[in-house]
Design a protein that fits this description.
Order of helices and strands: HEHEHEHEEHEHEHEHEEHHH
Oligomer: single chain
Distance between the termini: 92 Å
Length: 338
């Protein structure tokens, strides 16, 4: 019995070793160099049942234009779209990154920072943003009460100045313009307010000036000009040249006389471009349909906000440094826009 037990033990042990060897061979075969590597797959394209458009403050230009676009997209592009009020450009880029919105308005300079991971996006490069269209010039307007003794950016030193909502494109513009004049936010009493809050505080006499980056005319300034009266501060030619030399995404811009009540002369300043961008995961068909609906219904959009009158198909790709969404690119190709 002892011999039989020993023999059984040896046979069992041999059987276990054979199974272990087979398992190892199979694992080696699966991990061998001749096996094909897994191929990275692109994320599936999406057609959300609800399209959310990130805009800006309710007293700026983004919000009414976004509302007008949402109506056009809903009626003409087969999507259910809504506009969402936000802190504007910088916040909008992060909302796109976090997939909390589908489309967004932004300044061309802010979009460039975001996709390159520079300035306020240092260490936070955003890779899922695609361009749909450049829309119109966004004018940097420095607003003071009509009777103010502030006549130059240099006069802002020590004054109570709104530099835009926290994290907004306006805040970045204010910082860069002050820099050209040898100043920082520490040289002023900086307030970070929305356009509407800035207008209200100037009217109430608790704010001396405000930076507003938006298409002119801007509703917040128009309303203020009809009550308190406003003066738009002009930038000197040499300062404009210095600003453009350091930050090439700026361009000289003139606010024509009569843009606001009581504005009797042209005002020289600078501008960046307003853009509409999208999440890269949106389906090509959805973006194609929205791009087509936008440019084929500009007259309707202009009834919502006059700034839509300067949006032109032939300018849709001018000043765009981002990759264009394939859906928008398809529409431009059909229309011969390059």
């Amino acid at each position: 019995m002892k011999r039989k037990g020993l023999l059984f033990f040896i046979l069992s042990l041999a059987f276990i070793l054979v199974l272990a060897g087979c398992g190892a061979s199979k694992q080696d075969s699966q991990q061998g160099g001749e096996q094909p590597k897994e191929q990275a797959q692109e994320p599936a394209k999406e057609t959300p049942s609800q399209i959310v458009i990130a805009t800006g403050g309710t007293a700026g230009t983004y919000y009414p234009l976004g509302g007008g676009m949402a109506q056009i997209f809903t009626d003409k592009a087969g999507v259910n779209a809504t506009a969402q009020s936000t802190g504007a450009s910088v916040e909008n880029m992060r909302l796109i990154r976090d997939e909390q919105v589908d489309l967004a308005f932004t300044q061309s300079d802010i979009a460039d920072y975001a996709t390159k991971g520079t300035v306020m996006f240092e260490g936070d490069q955003i890779n899922n943003i695609r361009a749909i269209a450049a829309l119109y010039p966004e004018t940097i307007q420095i607003v003071v009460p009509a009777k103010s003794d502030i006549n130059s950016v240099a006069d802002l030193k020590g004054k109570r100045v709104s530099v835009g909502a926290p994290g907004s494109g306006t805040e970045a513009n204010a910082q860069q313009i002050l820099e050209i004049y040898g100043m920082t936010f520490e040289d002023i009493k900086a307030e970070r307010l929305s356009f509407k809050e800035s207008s209200s505080n100037i009217q109430d006499g608790v704010l001396d000036a405000a930076f507003v980056t938006a298409g002119a005319p801007t509703s917040a300034i128009t309303e203020l000009s009809a009550t308190t009266g406003v003066k738009i501060i002009q930038l000197e030619d040499d300062k404009i040249a210095d600003l453009i030399a350091k930050y090439p995404y700026y361009a000289e811009q003139v606010i024509p006389a009569g843009t606001y009540s009581g504005q009797d002369a042209d005002v020289k300043t600078v501008a960046v471009k307003a853009m509409l961008v999208a999440r890269d995961a949106l389906s090509d068909d959805a973006v194609y349909n929205m791009t087509k609906a936008l440019f084929e219904n500009l007259e309707q959009l202009a009834t919502v906000n006059a700034k839509a009158k300067v949006i032109k198909l032939e300018d849709a790709l001018k000043g765009v440094s981002l990759d264009v969404h394939p859906g928008a690119a398809k529409y431009y190709e059909e229309k011969g826009v390059k």
